[in-house]
Design goal:
Elements: E1 10-14, H1 19-30, E2 34-39, H2 42-52, E3 55-58, H3 64-78, E4 83-86, H4 101-129, E5 132-137, H5 150-170, E6 175-182, H6 188-196, H7 200-207, H8 220-227, E7 238-241
């Protein structure tokens, strides 16, 4: 028996058309899962869907109706929903006193509220199927503070606590809920951070024992583990994938 085999499983990955989300989606597809992705860029969606042999949907996940709709569209397209990866996220970098309330809400609704609403929508489908896997994508900002990322850090800290709450609630239904905490990964989002935060690239290298920034492909293995039978007794965990960044003194 291959504990990591995802043949016959169906996965929904939000923010799956690039960066960490696409890295995870590639891992799931390579392990045999059929994959649906959600993103707001039609061109990137189409390219990712072609590569993965899956389907893609455009949606604004800040809207409750959109969250519920993409779950139903995934089930309609793939026949079921076994795996949900809540990865969609944005960041607005400013000092705390400079944020407008609308910017705070935009980040929290995209990064945290959408994960709750999508999980809520997926729950009855997974329960009826006899179980499922939910993987929430947090961040190093789930653990550390940063002067330039107050709403982002709040949303990612919330992801960890949401993960624990859902894990406790749904373990009886054989639904495992875990979080992945990526370190500094080379994506479009972090490239913008390097442009906006002086010295960030060098500081990350100096603190990371692995001696490099991560790549989206570094998230493929943890996605497969948490989506597969190999993690059936793992729930409520928040697992750093960061080259040792979070344990370096």
């Amino acid at each position: 028996m291959n504990l990591f085999d995802l043949e016959g499983k169906a996965a929904l990955v939000t923010g799956g058309n690039g960066g960490i989300g696409l890295g995870m989606a590639r891992g799931l597809a390579a392990a045999g899962a059929r994959v649906a992705i959600v993103g707001r860029d039609a061109r990137k969606n189409a390219a990712a869907a072609r590569e993965l042999g899956g389907v893609a949907f455009e949606a604004d996940l800040r809207e409750e109706a959109a969250c519920r709709e993409v779950v139903e569209r995934t089930v309609a397209a793939l026949g079921r929903l076994d795996i949900l990866v809540n990865n969609a996220g944005i960041n607005i970098r400013k000092q705390p006193q400079e944020y407008a309330a609308s910017e705070w809400r935009e980040v929290l609704e995209t990064n945290l509220t959408s994960a709750f609403l999508l999980s809520q929508a997926a729950y009855p489908r997974m329960k009826r199927a006899g179980g499922g896997k939910i993987v929430n994508v947090g961040s190093m900002m789930s653990l550390f503070g940063a002067s330039f990322a107050a709403p982002y850090a709040a949303s990612k800290g919330g992801i960890v606590q949401l993960t624990r709450a859902l894990a406790c609630a749904w373990a009886k239904d054989n639904i495992q809920v875990n979080a992945v905490l990526p370190g500094w990964i080379d994506t479009d989002l972090t490239r913008r951070a390097r442009e906006q935060v002086a010295g960030l690239y060098e500081r990350v290298l100096a603190r990371t024992p692995a001696g490099r920034w991560g790549e989206p492909s570094d998230l493929a293995g943890i996605a497969v583990f948490l989506a597969s039978r190999a993690s059936d007794f793992v729930t409520g965990a928040a697992i750093p994938v960061d080259g040792g960044y979070s344990v370096q003194g």
